[in-house]
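ok so i was messing around last nite and threw this chain in just to see what happens. nothing serious, just curious
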Amino acid sequence: DCHMLATRQVVMAARQMPGLVDVFGELSRFEGNEFHLMNIDPLVGLSAWELVDGIDGGIFCGVMRDAEGEAAEVADKHWIFNPAADYVIRKDDTLLILAMDKEHVKPAKVSAAHKEALVVSKLKQHKTVKQEKFLVVGWRPGMASLLSEINSGAKRGSEVTILGDQSVAFREEQLKREDAPNFDKIKIRHLVRDPNDPISYSDDLNLGSLTAVMALLDDRAESEHNLDHIEARTLESVVTLRSVLRGVEKAGGNRPQVVVEVARYKTKKLVKVADPAAQVVTLDDFSATFLAQTIYEPEMMSVFERLSAPHGPDLLMLEKDLLAPPGATAIRFRELRLRALARGETLLGWYTQGGEAVLNPKNSAVVDMEQVASFVILGEPPVEK
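result:
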């Protein structure tokens, strides 16, 4: 459901460089670029490599086709996201394309010279999964799902500290009611402290060593308080965290990624005032825009479920030096797309130093590397070795 997808967003954003929440925000709205399913007969027989030039106005991201085999039902669909460079489009493939709208997408001519240019050499790849340390501030229903998401993509020995003013017995009872599985990769540490008291973030938390902080919509007392009160608690936690993390930075420590979960867009704006660097997932805003998309294109539910799942191709924020040529200051987007395909990834755009997601630019666009904070790709997440 939409809230499960939003929970996955919180965890995915906590694991990555800033920008993923903004990317999801654009993809789930009708304004800007979003995913479309299209059948384009002239593209049948072309490879994913050729489609870098073979589609004008959009980026080829995958295919949907009817499932095959004796066990397949009529309505079953088989998805291939982020196809390999040598994947060839079949007649029964419905293409998944990132574009402003379907009317902007046109087949384009592919030169004979380009057809011979398939490169299979690999550039620098992702690093393997490292042990992580997360601080979760607050407590709410659905904690079993959130912890399961963290556990699924974690390296064994990773740590999750949960800081809130609920008793450990209260938390354990809720996890039992929610049929929490065995968390085999993460160590969970419970701290019973007031999230809105700076003293709660004492030296024993070692904030500078954290991978990320997740400030949750603390609605454990929803039956007693209205949404304004619940979001006010979360906002107060953000203000407290911002003050504490400033102290970490002044002492020469690293500021961890901060991901905040709120219900309403108006609260998101307040969070960004309190901490401009925070990544904010807005549950109601995401749910409304996403549901509108799935009404228009029902298969989009499957697309977002797969692209936010713990395993398989994901939306990822990629360090720019893993893709751009060494020393490059400006490079055309088309060359970056080809370099991404050589890595086994699909390049969708980039995230600027100023905090803007640039998706589906023209192939001819010249990318100023000084303005790029990270690249937005479809690709395999880091793996545990």
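not much to say yet. DSSP finds eleven helices and 18 strands in the chain.
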